[in-house]
Amino acid sequence: MSDYNRRRFLQLTGATVSAATLGAGQVTAQNSDSRFFINLRDVDRSEIPDDVEIVHDLSQADVLVARGDQDRVDGTTVSDLTIDLSADGTGAVRSHDGPSTTGEGEGHNHDGPATNSEYQWDKREQDLANELTDKPGGGKSIHDIATGEGTRVAVVDSGVDDSHPDLAGVVNDDLSENVSEDDYDWRPNGAGNHGTHVAGIIAATNSNDGPAGGVLGTAPETELVSYRMFSGVEGKQGDGYAGWVKAAEAGCDAINYSVGFPAPYVYPDEYPELLQELRIAEQVAEYVRSKGTVIVNSAGNDGLDMTPRSTLSLPTEAEGVFGVSATGPIGYGWGGKHSDNEAKWLTGNRLEEPTTQPAFYTNYGSPVDISAAGGNADLEALDSGIEGAANDLVYSTVQGGYGWKAGTSMAAPQVSGAVALVRSLRPDASVEEVEKLIQDTASMPAGGESYHGAGHLDLEALVKAAR
After folding, report:
1. Which of 125, 128, 132, 155 has the alpha carbon at shortest distance from 140?
2. By three-state DSSP, how is residue 424 classified?
3. Following CA atoms 434, 437, 440, 445 in sequence, which dihedral angle do they give, to the nearest 10 degrees?
4. What is the pLDDT of residues 75-95, one digit of tens each?
């Protein structure tokens, strides 16, 4: 296993990472052609010219998403952003293909082909369910206490493939909606499998009866609502906010928003309009929270310290948005410290780095509310194709099968699923109470507040406190 030094990696390649990935790992962004936000707190709606088209009426939050001549609107307006997910990874820093839903588990050198669920270090380290290994250890698990029953989580993303056997019956077809401007439904439309991967982390049911089984989400009995904001590889921030409002009005307990503003749209000195973008995000968040919905957002993948005033990572830094940084192991079931028992892959000195290690790409600093499993990587081993090196990424559902991804995009849905667990135990808990429970029960690993906020997500402590 190659020497892994996170700080050295960021020092040497931070500029490259910053140019490539942020938020959900997006590649590029630009002002949306002729689309812009109108802030109704500064603009009299009656004064808006008739030839300005209202794309999304979010007046509940005093916001309109409009198209037309921005200069003709007298008052505060700011351009909408188009986010381009042109990389096939669609929001992940790293991706690796896995088996199909009908295929055997990938071979390894322990006790036969691994089942799909054995790759789920993110769920197994949380003692989510005894079914996650072919050698269950017994005892009470998280799912003996809560499974998310009676809750609803919105995935505002690239769409969810509900034909996957582990997502069949999970997505509410009636409430799900395409919030982009194309003519198709809420399922993926050319933007890859990012939303499907996120959905599996939250709510996969492990229902695949194939030879390698399936994967299990944090809250397999929650109901998902898919709001597709990406049309092909492009998604507009205003469509994302429309998804937020629709999710809140549909009674969703949480919104998973693994999307963010990409570099260089993080420097308010260079882009002063970001301060008006911040106002828009905060107004929408304020309305959403008033409806009882928690907004969970990926903190970003640029390795940026978000504490200084010289950076502004949106929407993570908006008041009312719950920001999640990413952690992950190095050496999960591969490298020089093998075990012939999958149940021991997470134990002792078999990991080069623990599952709570801050991921090499994660943003950090004061806007982080909590950390969660997003995946990590020994980049030299991964890029060299060393067998098993992808195991340190997060394993979940993709169209037609399973795959690994790493990013704060994968960390956010861990927390969205946790919101569903809390609300299934405390249906009347306020947004503030849910967030406080998650933070108060978090554990504090190495890296401290800068990387973990209030701490690392601890489902066992959380469900005990919520119960």
Report:
1. 128
2. helix
3. -80
4. 999 999 988 776 433 367 888
Burial category of 51 from C-beta neighbours within 10 Å (exposed 0-12, middle 13-18, buried 19 and up): exposed
CA atoms within 13 A on the CB side of 198: 41
The greatest distance separating any two alpha carbons of the chain, rounded to the nearest whole angstrom, comes to: 71
Digit-coded pLDDT (tens) for 274-327: 999 999 999 999 999 999 999 999 999 989 999 998 999 999 999 999 999 999
| Cβ–Cβ under 8 Å, residues 329 and 354 | yes
Q: How far is CA 3 from CA 295, 338, 346, 355, 407, in A?
A: 37, 18, 20, 17, 21
Which member of 108, 194, 452, 456 is catalytic? 194
Q: Among the options 79, 298, 371, 409, which is catalytic?
A: 409
Sheet with strand 401-406: strands edge to edge: 94-100, 401-406, 394-398
| Res 114 pLDDT > 80 | no
Give the CA angle between residues 168, 404, 346 to the nearest 5°: 105
Residue for token digits 């993303």? 157
The residue with greater pLDDT, 461 or 344, is: 461
Two tokens, residue 242: 């429309």
* Torsion 27-31-33-39 (CA) sign: positive
Interacting residues of 386 by C-beta distance below 8 A, sequence separation 6+: 334
Q: Where are the alpha helices (DSSP H) in 65-168?
A: 121-124
One of 62, 80, 122, 157 is an active-site residue; which one?
Answer: 157
Question: Positive or negative, the Cα torsion across 201, 13, 32, 266?
Answer: positive
Name the architecture of domain 6-11+87-466: 3-Layer(aba) Sandwich (3.40)
Active site residue 96: no
Q: Per-residue pLDDT tens for 162-200?
A: 999 999 999 999 999 999 999 999 999 988 899 999 999
Beta-strand (E) ranges in 68-147?
77-84, 94-100
Assess whether 409 carries a catalytic annotation.
Answer: yes
Domain-by-domain residue ranges, the chain?
6-11+87-466
Answer yes or no: 194 catalytic: yes
**pLDDT for the residue 92:** 75
Indicate whether 120 pLDDT > 50.
Answer: yes
Q: Give per-residue pLDDT as tens, 191-246.
A: 889 999 999 999 999 999 998 999 999 999 999 999 999 998 889 999 999 999 99
Would you say residue 3 has pLDDT above 50?
no
Distance of CA 244 to CAs 155, 297, 335, 400, Å? 9, 12, 42, 28
Residues 6+ apart with CB under 8 A from 419: 151, 153, 253, 254, 294, 296, 434, 438
